[in-house]
Backbone:
């Protein structure tokens, strides 16, 4: 029989077929190896963003002002539970773990049955998380998120600020929107990581791909110069007066005059940063930076110091104060006072407008302008908070013939309170420039210091130390002792300071109802530990309790000063 | 010329070595299968519960590997001629009983089988604590090969008769194929194909095939068009962009798995397709997993092993001196290698998707044990062939001494002689009849 040729023929054919199949496999694995790469990667890999922990913000004594904690949320994905029985079974299994009655869970799911994400309980504990993981429940997931806590809430609202959704709605990341959170967002934020998981067809993870994984880097933490205790002193003192006088707004700043570190900064009205979305936008402004105003009499010591430093006025020079009516320039004194000849010290003590106007005239436009520029008016101080307003110091070309007489007593110039307190810090420390700042140091997540705040350059001098000392120790202590600021006097320490009661221009006209009552000063006069500014805008004159700086602001100054110095002394800071 | 040199090279392989190389190839294939089924079945996300030991494909396969080796060894020790009709007549032959059992089991599976994917392919047999599943269609496939070899050997002289020989064979095959076709179209078509191939080798006239092909063609089309599932698979193959991704999914996942293996593979156990991306990864699509984890090197190794099985098996067939052994060796070799070729073709998306496992490698107890048994029979044939010169010499010496004593004729050389053969006389006479008829007529069956 002819079986052999058939067998050999079929055998040859089969060997050829196997050869062709080998070629096919080679073609797929060598020539077309990259064709399915993208498809394969997509199907087998999942990218899980690893969100960094945002850095903490702490006060100078390590109290937490803002911190991010991990919050775990249990959710049910109803799309994975096609039958209602499955939902009920899952709910029954969740009941003992979460201690939520199963019918309640079912109700929650029932309401959102069409969604794929139904949160059941937020903020579960680690034990609960482990129990749920071990139970391997179908359709149940745990989501972890960072949540920002601001434990001191209103106390530091304008300093710390808050974080929120970015302008780009596609990005779920939160960014700093106000305060330190905004200014130092890039430092605090850290960098996002990414875990690359290998998943099965149901997209359950099997393993991870360490080569493609990007390590998360948590944000750096900030230690502020703010002291929560002093902040509390400042706020409680200010808020009392603010309420009593039904004022429109109020500011209190406590600063270390030697380096410009801000120990407390309160701006009223304030808001709760944890619920910033509900807050009135008007309360969210940090008025110490954003609202320039005509400072009034608190500006006088600065101009006087510049005049004395430039030798335009002598310490004992008698200046004729026109008996209360400088008609040529249409200037009067406050509360209808009339003065004859006054020395610069008396001018400051009595807060004579005419005396200051004359000093301004003696200096001339150029010297006055340059002196104020030197003190930083009309320019941002560079404080590390967003939205600072530079104020307004008009160039001399734009000055009218009155301007040179108005600026010395704090009109026709717009300044922010932060500029004023910096000027007083310069006077208090003997004439060296300082930079107002809020961050003492930057640390990593473990608290190791990465970066210190730049040291202020105390070597430079804006004015001669003797001028600064004279203004502080001679003139401004006298204001407290026997002048307009007697309510600012302290029991144990010698305070210095200057009152200010500035008119507020409404529609280009000053009226007799709206004032800004201010007091700036420091203590102890010999070696000032702190300078404090209190400025209360529009105290309600109709209450009949007064509206002047000496009456409204000075008591606040005294309370803050008294508490702060006691605290500093006790803790030997 | 090259072909002739190749044949000469193959011709030089000692017959004894052929048997060992077949054993070795099968063992390596089964070992590879066990390793890769274990790898493909590994599921890192689930917890093993050893009370359900038998339900885990991977563990089951670990158990079947030594069992299969044992079965192969036993089968290689059983004389393959027990399956032929010429020894004790058709009704005392193993082949007929095996085929009968297969038909009974096929009927059983239609009645009591478990339904999976809308078809009944498995019988569940409770065996102690475990339930063993059994696939009668596998048994039917092998029984058909054995039956055909025996039939074509027994009726070799009259095989060219259409009504007397060809039609009965086709009817038997038709019954078997008909019982399977509704449940497992791929296996049924495969059995039909093997039947025709065996008939062709066995010497049936080629124009006889027109009749069953003409009869089968409408059945084939009805089968394809009656099942939207089957039709979709065919459509998916012929125009991939027209059909839904669901249908294409398996094929595209297979291509992804193969191509991501590249030349040297991702490493054993390192593939990701097995995590539910590729359906049927331990059974029909195990070759994709091999290609993914062992690369082209691994895939080529498997193909080369199957190709060498073809060569070795057919060398055994060609060298085998008895007609039954030759037909059986050819049938076993063709069944294994064609099945492998179809499976690899499906996996590499050269052929439309069909549920045919890769012999020795795919997970599945029935297929593995029966393939091992068949390989054992092949080894036995190889051994007998290898033994022939020695055996013949002994026979010759004995016959010569007998002839000297009895002065009888020498026995014919082309058939090894057994002393207990009862039908010796009948066989002799039929051979004579054939000799006579061929001398008088050129084509007796015409």
Residues:
């Amino acid at each position: 029989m002819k079986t052999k040729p058939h067998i050999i023929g079929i055998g040859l054919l089969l060997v050829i077929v196997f050869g062709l199949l080998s070629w096919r496999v080679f073609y797929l694995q060598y020539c077309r190896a990259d064709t399915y790469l993208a498809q394969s990667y997509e199907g087998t890999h999942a990218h899980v963003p690893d969100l960094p922990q945002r850095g903490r913000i702490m006060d100078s004594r390590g109290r937490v002002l803002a911190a991010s904690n991990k919050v775990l949320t249990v959710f049910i994905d109803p799309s994975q539970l096609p039958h209602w029985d499955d939902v009920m079974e899952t709910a029954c299994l969740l009941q003992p773990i979460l201690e939520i009655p199963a019918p309640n869970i079912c109700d929650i799911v029932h309401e959102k049955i069409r969604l794929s994400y139904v949160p059941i309980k937020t903020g579960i504990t680690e034990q609960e998380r482990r129990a749920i993981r071990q139970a391997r429940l179908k359709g149940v997931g745990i989501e972890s998120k960072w949540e920002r806590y601001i434990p001191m809430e209103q106390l530091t609202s304008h300093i710390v600020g808050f974080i929120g959704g970015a302008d780009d709605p596609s990005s779920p990341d939160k960014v700093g929107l106000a305060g330190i959170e905004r200014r130092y967002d890039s430092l605090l934020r850290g960098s996002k990581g990414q875990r690359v998981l290998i998943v099965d067809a149901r997209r359950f993870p099997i393993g991870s791909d360490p080569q493609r994984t990007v390590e998360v880097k948590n944000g750096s933490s900030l230690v502020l110069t703010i002291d929560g205790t002093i902040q509390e002193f400042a706020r409680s003192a200010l808020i009392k007066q603010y309420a009593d006088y039904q004022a429109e707004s109020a500011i209190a700043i406590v600063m270390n005059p030697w380096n410009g570190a801000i120990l407390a900064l309160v701006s009223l009205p304030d808001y709760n940063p944890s619920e910033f979305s509900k807050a009135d936008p008007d309360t969210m402004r940090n008025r110490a930076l954003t609202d320039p105003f005509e400072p009034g009499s608190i500006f006088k010591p600065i101009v006087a110091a510049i005049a004395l430093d430039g030798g335009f006025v002598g310490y004992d020079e008698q200046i004729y104060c026109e008996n209360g009516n400088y008609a040529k320039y249409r200037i009067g004194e406050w509360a209808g006072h009339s003065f004859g000849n006054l020395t610069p010290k008396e001018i400051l003590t009595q807060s004579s407008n005419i005396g200051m106007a004359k000093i301004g005239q003696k200096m001339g436009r150029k010297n006055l302008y340059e002196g104020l520029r030197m003190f930083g008016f009309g320019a941002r101080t560079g404080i590390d908070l967003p939205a600072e307003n530079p104020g307004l110091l008009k160039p001399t070309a734009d000055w009218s013939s009155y301007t040179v007489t108005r600026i010395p007593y704090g009109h026709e110039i717009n300044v922010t309170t932060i500029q004023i307190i910096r000027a007083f810090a310069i006077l208090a420390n003997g004439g060296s420039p300082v930079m107002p700042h809020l961050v003492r140091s930057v640390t990593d997540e473990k608290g190791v210091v990465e970066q210190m705040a730049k040291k202020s350059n105390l070597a430079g001098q804006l004015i001669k130390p003797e001028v600064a000392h004279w203004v502080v120790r001679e003139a401004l202590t006298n204001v407290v002792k026997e002048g307009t600021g007697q309510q600012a006097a302290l029991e144990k320490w010698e305070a210095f300071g200057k009152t200010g009661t500035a008119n507020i221009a409404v529609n280009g006209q000053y009226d007799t109802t709206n004032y800004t009552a201010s007091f700036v000063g420091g203590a102890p006069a010999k070696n000032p530990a702190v300078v404090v500014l209190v400025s209360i805008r529009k105290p309600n004159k109709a209450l009949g309790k007064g509206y002047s700086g000496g009456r409204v602001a000075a008591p606040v100054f005294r309370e803050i000063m008294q508490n702060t110095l006691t605290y500093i002394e006790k803790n030997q800071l | 010329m090259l072909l002739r040199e190749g044949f000469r090279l193959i011709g030089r392989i000692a017959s004894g070595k052929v048997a060992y190389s077949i054993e070795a190839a099968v063992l390596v294939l089964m070992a590879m299968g066990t390793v890769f089924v274990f790898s493909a079945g590994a599921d890192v996300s689930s917890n093993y519960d050893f009370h359900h030991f038998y339900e885990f494909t991977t563990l089951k396969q670990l158990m079947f590997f030594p069992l299969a080796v044992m079965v192969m060894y036993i089968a290689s020790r059983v004389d393959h001629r027990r399956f032929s009709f010429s020894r004790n007549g058709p009704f005392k032959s193993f082949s007929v009983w095996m085929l009968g059992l297969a038909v009974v089991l096929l009927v059983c599976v239609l009645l009591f089988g478990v339904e999976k994917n809308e078809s009944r392919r498995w019988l569940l047999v409770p065996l102690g604590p475990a339930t063993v599943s059994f696939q009668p269609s596998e048994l039917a496939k092998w029984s058909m090969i054995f039956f055909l070899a025996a039939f074509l050997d027994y009726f070799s002289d009259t095989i060219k008769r259409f009504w007397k020989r060809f039609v009965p064979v086709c009817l038997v095959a038709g019954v078997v194929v008909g019982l399977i076709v509704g449940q497992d179209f791929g296996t049924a078509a495969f059995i039909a194909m093997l039947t025709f191939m065996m008939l062709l080798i066995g010497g049936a006239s080629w124009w006889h095939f027109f009749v069953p092909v003409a009869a089968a063609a409408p059945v084939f089309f009805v089968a394809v068009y009656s099942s939207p599932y089957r039709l979709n698979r065919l459509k998916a193959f012929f125009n991939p962009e027209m059909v839904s991704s669901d249908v294409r999914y398996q094929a595209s996942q297979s291509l992804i798995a193969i191509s991501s293996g590249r030349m040297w593979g991702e490493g054993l156990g390192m593939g990701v397709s097995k995590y539910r991306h590729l359906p049927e990864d331990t059974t029909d699509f195990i070759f994709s997993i091999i290609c993914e984890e062992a690369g082209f090197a691994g895939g080529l190794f498997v193909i080369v092993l199957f190709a060498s099985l073809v060569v070795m098996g057919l060398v055994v067939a060609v060298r085998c001196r008895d007609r039954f052994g030759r037909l059986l060796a050819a049938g076993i070799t063709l069944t294994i290698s064609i099945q492998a070729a179809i499976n690899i073709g499906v996996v590499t998306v050269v052929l439309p998707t069909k549920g045919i496992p890769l012999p020795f490698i795919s997970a599945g107890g029935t297929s593995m044990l029966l393939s091992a048994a068949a390989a054992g029979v092949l080894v036995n044939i190889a051994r007998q062939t290898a033994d022939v010169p020695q055996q013949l010499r002994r026979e010759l010496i004995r016959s010569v001494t007998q002839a000297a004593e009895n002065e009888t004729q020498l026995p014919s050389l082309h058939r090894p002689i057994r002393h207990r053969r009862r039908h010796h006389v009948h066989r002799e006479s039929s051979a004579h009849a054939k000799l006579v008829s061929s001398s008088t007529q050129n084509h007796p069956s015409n």
About this structure: Chain B touches chain A through 51 residues (CB under 8 Å). The CA atoms of residues 84 and 355 of chain B lie 31 Å apart.
